[in-house]
C-alpha cells in the first residue's frame, strides 16, 4: 500500500529526509543509494554483488507486501536497468519461469508501462545475467 523501499540509482548518498512520505511508514521508507553510472569502473564481482544486494532487498520488500520505488533522474535508463535486473533475479534465482528473461522481452514489458524506457547500461544487465546464471564474469569492457 505504501512505499517501504526506495532505490535511488543516481546518488551514492542523499538527504534521507527527502523520502519522508507522510505517516505511511514510521520513520520513512528504507533507502538504498547507488550511483549506477559509476559502476562502469567496477565490473566483475563487485558490481554483481552490489546489484545482488539491491535485487534481494527489492524482493524482500515485495514479498512482505511492501511497495518499492526505483528511480534515477529521468526514469528511463538507470532505474529501468535495475528493474530489468529484478526480472533476471526472479527468473534465475527464484525460479519464476513465467517472468521474462530475454532482454528484448523485459524491455518490451517495461515499455508497456513506461513508454520512454530504453535499453541502457546493458553491460550491467549482461553482467548480472551471467552472475545469476552462474557464468564467469565478462571482461572489464563488458563483453
Describe the structure.
The chain is of the alpha/beta class. 41% of the residues lie in helices and 10% in strands. It is built from four helices and three strands. It has helices at residues 44-63, 78-93, 103-113, 122-133, and strands spanning 3-8, 30-33, 67-71. Strands 2-1-3 form a three-stranded parallel β-sheet. Helix 1 crosses helix 2. It starts with a strand and ends in a 10-residue tail after the last helix. 31% of the residues are buried.
User: What does the largest sheet look like?
Assistant: 3 strands, parallel
Given helix and strand content, the structural type is: alpha/beta
Q: Estimate the mean pLDDT confidence.
A: 85
Fraction in beta strands: 5-15%
Strand order of the largest sheet: 2-1-3
- Uncertain segments are 139-143
Distance between the termini: 40 Å
Per-chain topology:
Elements: E1 3-8, E2 30-33, H1 44-63, E3 67-71, H2 78-93, H3 103-113, H4 122-133
Parallel strand pairs: 1-2, 1-3
Helix pairs in contact: 1-2, 1-4, 2-3, 2-4
Give a short synopsis of this structure.
The chain is α/β, with parallel strands linked by helices and 143 residues long. It contains 4 helices and 3 strands.
Keywords:
disordered C terminus, 3 strands, three-stranded parallel sheet, alpha/beta, 41% helix, single chain
